[in-house]
Every structure is written in C-alpha cells, then in structure tokens.
Amino acid sequence: MANRFNYVLISIGLLLLIVVARCGEVDSNGSSATAITDSALTATYPDLYQAIFSRNAAHVLSFTDHQNEQISRQAWRGLAQTPVDSLSSIIEQVKQDRSQEAWFALSMHDLSKEQLRHLEDYWLDHPGQRAGISLVLGRQGDEQTVEFLTNQITKATGSDYEQSVALALSRLMNQFESTEAQQAEVLNHAFVSSDPQRIRAWLYGFYRGDEQRLLPAIQDLLYNKWKSYGIASSTEVDQ
User: How far apart are CA 26 and CA 90, in angstroms?
Assistant: First the structure.
C-alpha cells in the first residue's frame, strides 16, 4: 500500500514538474508550447522528481549540469527547497552555472557571515553576475550587506542589474536598521530612472516598511522626489 501511495505521489509530481517546466513557453507563433517532445524530459524527470521527493541534495545536484537546460533548471528549483549540509561547494557550482535559477536556489538557504562577505567580494569582481548575487544578498544578507549595497547604489543606477540591487537593498532596509544617510541615498537615486518598475523597486522598503521608522527629513525628501517625478503620473509608483 505504501509503495502504491509513493507511486501515485511520484506520478503527480512528475506531471506538475512537466507543467511548471513548460509553463509560459511559447513557440515561434507565440502560442503556448505544452507538448512534451523531448525524450530526455520524459526519461529523466521521474528520476529527478524522486531525488527531490526524497530530499536528497547530492542526487538533485547531479541533475543541475544536465545537458538538457529544462532539466537542469528544474533541478535548481528543486534544490531551493532541499536541505543542504554544506553550502561551500554549492556556492561554487552556482557561480559556474550562472543561471538565475541557480542563484535563486542559493538564496533560499542560510549563509554564514563569511559566505556573505565572499559573495559581496564576488559581486565586485564579476559584473555579469551581479543580478543573481544581489538576489541572494537581498534574501540572506545582514546589516553589513546593507552598508555594502548602499555603497554600490551609484554603480548600480542605470545598469542592467539595477532592479535586482534595488529590491535587495529595499528588503534588507525593511529588515534591519538603516541610517538617515542610507535612506536618503536610496531616494536620491530612486527617481533617476523613468522606468516605474525600477522606481518601485527602490521604494519597496519604504512602502512595505514601518512608516514610523522614517525620520521627518526622509518623509519630506520622499514627498519632494515623488512630487518632482509627478504625482499620479504612474499607477505603479503611486501604489
């Protein structure tokens, strides 16, 4: 009976994994591509799901370098919810993989202070991976990370990783104490872009946080910046 129950769970999980992996993909005509035509997917997904189902990190990791990109991406997603004994080797694999799924998986695991400092240094040395590293720092960073990312605001503004840094710093400022100078630095760069999504990312920590943590000077600065940008000029920003 137990074996039959496990078989049902695996079958359901296989179906869900296939749906998730294909969800949102489109063909050349812009239509949803839901047909499973790659034999590697149908042959490998049961083994991958069994690894995820058994919460076997080493087994799940073995799929992350699979030649089929859909399988490797799904393996990283599975690793995000799989307990890991040691993150040191996984950090190195994530750095080699470079995909957003790999960085997301790492962002779901607790990091030591030494690992955070290492990733901050890696952020400085590898501009091409700053978006992914910022995702990790935003979820797992500490008070020192707030200072680190604040010091990178000017560098991030206008870059292709600006929104990732903005969200990371906003989350951390909502979680840890930040100084008036740090909050002002965010606001002074928030409205540089004309992209509402980027502006909203910088302001995330202000509209999701405790208003009483904002000093009067910061409240005034926020209102003045918003007014200069144009109140009611963007529903995304106004919300």
Answer: 31
Exposure string for 168-195, b = 16+ CB within 10 A, e = fewer? bbbbbbbbeebeeebbebbbebbbebee
* pLDDT tens for each residue of 45-96: 888 888 888 888 999 999 999 888 888 999 999 999 999 988 999 999 999 9
Residue 192 tokens read as 């540089």
CA distance 108 to 110: 7
Q: Which residues pair with 32 in a beta bridge?
A: 26
The residue written with tokens 């993150």 in the block is 87
Q: What does the pLDDT look like over 200-238, one tens digit per residue?
A: 899 887 776 666 667 778 888 877 776 766 554 555 554
Torsion of CA 189, 194, 198, 204, to 10 degrees: 70
State phi, psi for 152 to the nearest 5 degrees: -100, 5
| Distance between CA atoms of residues 2 and 205, nearest Å | 48
Distances (CA, A) of 227 to 39, 110, 136, 153, 233: 57, 40, 33, 22, 10
CA pair distance 76, 194, nearest whole angstrom: 34
Closest CA to 136 of 175, 113, 164, 170: 164
Tokens describing residue 11? 């079958």
Point out which residues pair with 26 in neighbouring strands.
32
